[in-house]
Design goal:
Elements lengths: L2 H24 L9 H23 L5 H9 L8 H22 L10 H8 L8 H23 L8 H16 L9 H13 L15 H21 L5 H27 L1
Helix pairs in contact: 1-2, 1-4, 1-5, 2-7, 3-4, 3-9, 4-8, 6-7, 6-9, 8-9, 9-10
């Protein structure tokens, strides 16, 4: 198997299982009774299965933010980054299409267009773009740092993917309820494109106005997670680390200013 096919298949598995649990929870006339705990556990297992499937072939990034974070700190070749990201986006799109076909009889019976969109992509609990961006930055920052933490420890053979899955569960339960925790540009953008293209009955629009947040936020958080780990845990700070620190501080301050102004004007 080529690395391109490995990342494609790993990401496809992630979306089939992750999008599938949301479909079971949100679509009418299924046998599922979904809740946030179930969804976070299923997404953690989805990541673990994707990593088990192709970890020996590609390292199973299955996430452009992880690929960029690892490349930034020298743990992955920059020359392979475009190919990995193309494979991840393609795999996410294909996975979303498979979820659509799996639940084919259930789309027409579900009236809520947002319930259908949420199967493919994320949306915020409170629509506040800068704060939503912060949530995606923080979640992905923890993800990439956590992956580097896990890689620095020795586990019984075959256990690492499960530990990574538990990391996803922890992020989802602790940080995911604000935006639905994309923490992965491919997980959101690939399925959102599928939602726009597929003939889903009563689907509504694909909320492209929000789509930049689950792409840009994870990219910033993933890159900074790698730089922070390198600077603090490996005692090797560099100029990109300080530049990113200033950028993120500015985003945090802007978010606080916006939210405080809302309180004052309420």
């Amino acid at each position: 198997m080529t690395e391109f096919m490995g990342e494609l298949i790993g990401t496809m598995i992630l979306i089939i299982l992750g999008g599938g649990v949301i479909a079971g929870a949100n679509l009418k006339h299924t046998k599922a009774d979904g809740n946030w705990v179930l969804i976070t556990i299923a997404w953690g297992l989805a990541v673990a299965m994707g990593v088990y499937a192709v970890g020996d072939v590609t390292g199973a990034h299955i996430n452009p933010a992880v690929t960029l974070g690892l490349a930034t700190v020298g743990d992955f070749e920059w020359a392979k980054v475009p190919m990995y990201i193309a494979a991840q986006m393609t795999g996410a799109f294909v996975g979303a299409v498979i979820v659509f076909f799996h639940y084919l009889p259930h789309w027409a019976g579900t009236e809520d267009p947002m319930a259908k969109l949420s199967i493919f992509s994320t949306d915020p609990a409170i629509d506040s773009p800068v704060s939503n961006l912060v949530s995606e930055i923080v979640g992905t920052f923890i993800l990439v740092m956590g992956i580097l933490f896990i890689g620095a420890n020795e586990f019984t053979d075959g256990l690492n993917p499960l530990i990574v899955g538990l990391l996803i569960v922890a992020i989802g339960m602790s940080l995911g309820s604000t935006t639905g925790y994309a923490i992965n540009p491919a997980r959101d953008l690939g399925p959102r494109i599928a939602h726009a293209i597929l003939p889903i009955p009563g689907k509504g629009d694909s909320n492209w106005g929000y789509s930049w947040i689950p792409v840009l936020g994870p990219v910033i958080g993933g890159v900074y997670g790698g730089l922070f780990y390198q600077a603090v845990f490996e005692a090797a700070p560099n100029l990109p680390f300080w530049i990113m620190t200033v950028i993120i501080a500015a985003i945090l301050l802007t978010s606080m200013k916006i939210e405080l102004s809302k309180e004052q004007s309420a």
